Amino acid sequence: MKKISDIMGDQTLLPIIQADNVEDGVAIAKAMAAAGLTTVEVVLRSENSAKCITAIKEALPDMIVSAGTVIDRASLDAAINAGADFIVTPAVTERLLTMLVDSGLPVLPGVSNVSDIVLAREHGFREMKLFPASLSGGAAFLKAVGGLFKDTKFCPTGGVSPENFEDYLSLGNVFAAGGTWVAKPQWVADKQWDLITEACSQV
């Protein structure tokens, strides 16, 4: 199974795209690409989310587009059919993890406690998303579990901001962090794509 950290390379921010329509989704991705980002996450939270993944991949063939908020068979199938390059989940269950492994795609499973980490490890995962990071102990939690799971790395998401981004990245078991602050809903509503590019460039 290919590591998400290998897919992302030197990129330490996994920017999250939330769009109500395909046009905005593509515009957000283009603004992020203009800042030099090559990997994004599109969360499956609207009826057009899967279409956004397909459209972004068509508009930006070199961009790696992951599907987030995959929680069941329906959302996993939607992500696969849309052409997602890898899968991101907010949580784990025995059934979901089995489906994810069987999908054959790289996966970043979401965990929020030590039991989740052990469960994900039992299915072969060594890279995980801590979510919601700020409510699950944040950097202090990741620092605490570093000694327990020496071969496991994380991408914290949820409550990550410019103020704590570097705190997370300074930890040896963090390879990236996910964030929505680089594409604020008001910027999207106002079509201020340059502000997205600027925010991404500052990471």
UniProtKB/TrEMBL annotation:
Superkingdom classification of source: Bacteria
InterPro entries the UniProt entry points to: Aldlse_KDPG_KHG (IPR000887), Aldolase_TIM (IPR013785), KDPG/KHG_AS_2 (IPR031338)
EC number: 4.1.2.14, 4.1.3.16
One MF term in the entry's GO annotations: (R,S)-4-hydroxy-2-oxoglutarate aldolase activity
PROSITE patterns reported for this sequence: ALDOLASE_KDPG_KHG_2
Top-level EC class: lyase
Record-linked Pfam families: Aldolase
Keywords recorded for this protein, A-Z: Carbohydrate metabolism, Lyase
Pathway participation: Carbohydrate acid metabolism
Coiled coil: none
Homology family: Belongs to the KHG/KDPG aldolase family.
PANTHER family: 2-DEHYDRO-3-DEOXY-6-PHOSPHOGALACTONATE ALDOLASE-RELATED, 2-KETO-3-DEOXY-6-PHOSPHOGLUCONATE ALDOLASE
Subunit structure of this chain's protein: Homotrimer.
Protein name per Swiss-Prot or TrEMBL: Bifunctional 4-hydroxy-2-oxoglutarate aldolase/2-dehydro-3-deoxy-phosphogluconate aldolase
